[in-house]
Amino acid sequence: MNWGEFFAMKGYGFYVWGSYGVVLLVFIVETALVRHRRIITLRQLRLLRDAGKEE
Amino acid sequence: MAINWFKYSAPSTFYGLAGKLVPWFAWLSAILFAIGLYIGFFVAPTDAQQSEAYRIIYIHVPASMISMFIYLIMAGYAALGLIFNTRLSSMMASALAPTGALFAFISLWTGALWGKPMWGAWWVWDARLTSELILLFLYLGFIALHASIDDPRRADRASALLAIIGSVNVPIIYFSVKWWNTLHQGATVKFTGTSMHAAMQQAMFTVLVACWLYAIAMTLARVRSIILERERNTEWVDELPEVKL
């Protein structure tokens, strides 16, 4: 089996790779969002703490 | 050795534990995805009726099952939070919802891409598809309701009620192919076993475990931020090295 044949999926390539491609995208985006939320949360905590000190 | 399980029901101790567990679950998940999809694409044979299009099954079925399991676990945590007033349970329910919603979306998306070549339609108002769509809306409703109430404890209680009532939808999804005459094929995995080829079963089961580990990793990583947001006025949060910077 060659790679061209593999990616063609006997004519169903669009459906098969369209499925797995979006799943991969969802996983990447979710991971990025979770990481972003952590960075934002930590930044907010430090801002709140520093604001408290100034009072 | 006696393990004090209640120790980890405190957000302060769970925060550290979750942080240690996330990379393990994430890497194990990635490895199992690779193994499962390798078996699914290179070992498992071509389907006699559906040719290569059937290979969508290796993500469609696990994602659908996980979307239902996560909902029940989310409703369970929400109920615990409602009954025992435990803070961490409600935080876990909130952390599970986005991942559950994404698995419901993946189930519908891969289903549409499988339905088009097999049934000739991206979407039909079939009992199975409609009840899975309702599941996605329940997740989104849970997230939106929680976000719309300012007081987090009140938000927990209101959204817990929604989650608990919505859980009747899960058995409806599962039994929909039996109760109604649907276009969607019958259950691939039944309580009594399955009719699949051995390699197909191995691939699907491996991806199912990979999806589980992925969901756990995402939930634990997310709940850490939720814990920090909601415990921000406590001393232990101020003492954390990542906050002290």
Task: Give your account of this protein's structure.
- The complex is a heterodimer of chains A (55) and B (245).
- Chain A has 55 residues and is mostly helical.
- Helix content of chain A is 87%, strand content 0%.
- Chain A is built from two helices and no strands.
- The longest helix of chain A is centred in the middle third of the chain and has 42 residues.
- Chain A is rod-shaped.
- The termini of chain A are far apart.
- Chain B has 245 residues and is mainly α.
- Chain B is 75% helix and 2% strand.
- Chain B is built from nine helices and two strands; from the N terminus they run ααααααββααα.
- Chain B has a two-stranded antiparallel sheet with strand order 1-2.
- In chain B, strand 1 and strand 2 form a beta hairpin.
- In chain B, helix 3 crosses helix 5.
- Chain B starts with 10 loop residues before the first helix and ends with a helix.
- The mean pLDDT of chain B is 92.
- The interface between A and B is medium-sized, with 29 and 36 residues.
In short:
The complex is a heterodimer of chains A (55) and B (245). Chain A has 55 residues and is mostly helical.
State the main characteristics:
heterodimer; A: 55 residues; mainly alpha; 2 helices; 87% helix; rod-shaped; B: 245 residues; two-stranded antiparallel ribbon; 9 helices; 2% strand
Number of helices of chain A: 2
Give the biggest beta sheet of chain A: none
The Rg value of chain B, from CA coordinates, equals 20 Å
Q: How many helices of chain B in DSSP terms? A: 9
Summarize the largest interface: chains and residue counts: A-B, 29 and 36 residues
